[in-house]
Structures are given as structure tokens and as C-alpha cells.
Amino acid sequence: MNHIQTSASLVVEELKPILGDRLATSNAVREHHSHDTSWLAPHMPDAVAFPRDEDEVVAIVRACAKHGVPVVPFGAGSSMEGHTIPVRGGVTIDTREMNRIVEIRPKDGLAVVQAGVTRKQLNEELRATGLMFSVDPGSDASLGGMASTRGSGTTAVRYGTMRENVMALRVVTPDGTPIHTGSRARKSSTGYDLTHLFVGAEGTLGLITELTVRLHPIPEMVSSAVCAFEDVGEAVQAVIETVQYGIPVARVEFMDEVAIEGTNAYSGLDLKVTPTLFFEFHGTPAWVDEQSRLVAEIASGHGGSDFRWSTDPDERAKLWQARHDIYWATKAQRPGCELFTGDICVPISRLAESIVAAREDIDASFLKGQIIGHVGDGNYHTAYLIDPNSKEELEEAERLSGLLVERALAVGGTASGEHGIGMGKIKYLRKEHGAAVDVMKRIKAALDPAGIMNPGKMGQEG
Ligand code: MLT
Ligand code: ZN
């Protein structure tokens, strides 16, 4: 037994009386927590804890701190860059039993939830209030995980990402101290903005146990449209114009023809196989009508055709479910493959050239790949379908991903718009942030001098 395993068994011994069956060391449970949805190699934790409240998290983190054992936060396991892979073993803290909605305050437009509450669970609970939680990554992720990765989804263009929607947090710091950050007020000028230090820290600075999140009124009217284009560049130009006009679209999503083909097959749609935009408009009936008309005019000016409008909730739900299932639809295009994903974000004026170049790279490669995007934000995903055991394919995906990032950084963009750094994109952190990475490392060292929180990731590497 090496040092970590020995220390981990001391932690397990100490925590068993507190957690009982909610501390697992079986192979099956450890295996389930050894990977996320990325292609990256799995690694098993020594044990997995399922706390129910903050006191239990404090006990776990204190025991780990005492014995120098790594702590890896885990939400729904749907991260896409290896964030939750316990590369140095230790105790994974799975927050799925911390799934209590603590409070909903409709008049203040906020909800307080434990970290393991998922986005769908919260929206289900909100139904009767006329409010919604807007952030919608593809999977039914936990809010703690979404905050940790500064996640977003299809509605960020109108309602913002987790950065804009988290008002306050409770966090257990690496020495086991519970703290709160932020407040229920809409704004504040007090103290360092620790809320937004922990949002996006990917579990390297502490473990989020509770979140206060912003809610939005469910719009009176919702209308969706699908619009087909001849050409990728023209589709994206239509988006750029829409954003530059200041039309407050609620969603505007791009899919290239490869993605449309996969979605048709996986989700039983019959969309024309061509670059396509999915729009959604929110507001009063008159306002939705006005926005739809303006966008239709812009789209037609760029060769957009085959408009399909829908205000029918079931039809819309089917369309957006298909969009959210894109990860599975893509995987199904090559049975047994893993997805190597790109996730860059660029200033909106550079989006068309960026996507066109990414598509040309894929077309010139022997790998199959597709492009989808939250294009209203200037954010898009490439997915390269790889056999993770093929060195040649992995190298090619790395090369394509590298080109993508280089071009994004050259125009003032970022290596990741929403999936985060994890292990998959760590090598780009310094290219993007330069000497600021050393400041990040100093913050990490100050908060977590023993380096136990999600080690081997951001704040230590890069
Ligand atoms: C999405 O936009 O669907 C997610 O970010 C997942 C993906 O990249 O496949
Ligand atoms: Zn996405």
C-alpha cells in the first residue's frame, strides 16, 4: 500500500461511524466515479462518500485534511473535460443525496438549494410559481457541478450563465471550514467577490454545499423556429446580425449538416440535412411576433429558408430535447466511439470565420466531426468522433482542437466557453491567461496549502 491508500483507509475508518453505508469502497461504486463523459482515461477514487448535509461534508473534508487525502467533488458526473476524475485517488464526495430545495422565494426571484439538486428537479418544483431556473446544459446536471464549471447552455444568450445566475454560496473550504459568500440582495459592494471565485473553480478551492440562484418569470408566450441555410457562413452571419441589432432572442443554436443527420436519426426528426439555426423567442405575444418577424427578415437576407414555426409546447419540447440529446446522437453516429470536444468562444464579429475554418479543418481530416453552437454567445462545440485506443486518432483530434483554440485566442476568444478546463484543456490555460496563471496558483496555494481539493487540476497544473 502506498502512502495515499494507507491514509485513505484511515479516513474511511474515521468516517464509517458517521456515514455508514453512505461511504462506499466497492469496486462498482468507485468505478462509476472514475470517469466523466469525456474520452479521458479513468482513475478510481479510494472511497466515495454520499453526505446528506453540510455538517457531513465538513466531517469528510476535515478527516481528509487531517490525513492529507485528496477530496474530489462530484455532482451528476456529466462534466466534459475530466473535472471529476480523481487522478490522485482519495475520497470522492458525491452530492446526489444533498438534493433538498431549501427555500423558494418567488417575490425575490430566488431559490436556495443544496448542491446536488438538478436543474430539472428545480424546474419541476418551480412549476406552480410561474418562475424558472434558466441555465440548461445538455444533461440534467447538478447545480453544484454547474456552478463549479461555470456552466451554461442554450439560454445563456438571454438569461446568462451560472456566473450571472448564482447570487450566493455556502462552501466548505479545504480545511473543513464552512463559509457563506454573497447575499440575497441584487447587488453588493462588500468584500472580495468570493462567490465568483468559487463559481468556475472546478472544485479546486472548496466544495459547494448550497447555492442561492436567480429565477426568471416564465414568459407569457414562447415561439420556436427552425431555419435551414445553404451555407455555414451565411447561417452564422444571420446570427451575428441578430445579436448586433440587439434582438433579445432567448435561444439561437446552430447545427451543421453532420449534427442534423445524427439528430434526425437519434431523435426521430426529419429536418433538412443542411446548416440549420434553431431560434426561440420569449415575451408577450406582440413582442414575440415582432422579434420573430425581424429575425425572419434577417435570416431570409442570408438565404435562410424552410422556416418551421411552432408555439405548440409538445413540438417545442421535442425539438429542444433533441438538441439537448446531441451528445448521445453524436456518439450513436459511430458505435463505440468517444467524443473529443472543442468548446471555444469568440467575439461575435469573428464567429463566422471561426466556424467556417473549423469546418474546413474537419473536412480536410480523416476524422469524422461535427459543429454545434450556442452561437448567440459566440460559443460553439466541435466534436471529433474518436476511438480512444487509437493513438493516431487521438493525435489528430488534439491537432484539430489545438488549431481551433489557437485561432480563438488570436481573435481575443477563449479555449472554453462553457465546458471548462478539467484535464482536457489544462494545457491551454497559460496560452490564454499568461502570467495570470501564477496568480491562480497563488490563490490555490493560499486556500489549499496542502493541495487536497481536486488535485492535479487547475491551480496546480497549467
Ligand atoms: C451541448 O451544448 O449540448 C453541450 O455542451 C454538450 C456537447 O457539447 O455535446
Ligand atoms: Zn454546449
Quick synopsis:
With 462 residues, this protein is an alpha+beta fold. The protein has helices spanning 3-19, 27-32, 54-67, 119-126, 143-148, 156-159, 162-165, 195-198, 232-244, 257-267, 285-301, 313-324, 326-332, 351-363, 391-410, 429-433, 436-447, and strands at 23-24, 47-49, 71-74, 91-94, 101-105, 110-114, 131-132, 166-172, 178-182, 207-214, 216-217, 221-228, 251-255, 276-283, 305-310, 338-342, 368-374, 379-386.
How would you describe the overall organization of this protein?
The chain is α+β, with helices and mostly antiparallel strands and 462 residues long. It folds into 4 domains: 94 residues, Uridine Diphospho-n-acetylenolpyruvylglucosamine Reductase, domain 2 (2-Layer Sandwich), CATH 3.30.43; 117 residues, Uridine Diphospho-n-acetylenolpyruvylglucosamine Reductase, domain 3, CATH 3.30.465; 107 residues, Alpha-Beta Plaits, CATH 3.30.70.2190; 97 residues, 2-Layer Sandwich (Alpha-Beta Plaits), CATH 3.30.70.2740. The chain is built from 17 helices and 18 strands. The strands form 4 sheets. The protein has a 7-stranded antiparallel sheet. Helix 1 runs antiparallel to helix 3 and helix 9 packs across helix 11. It starts with a helix and ends in a 15-residue tail after the last helix. The structure holds D-malate and zinc ion. Zinc ion (ZN) binds next to loops.
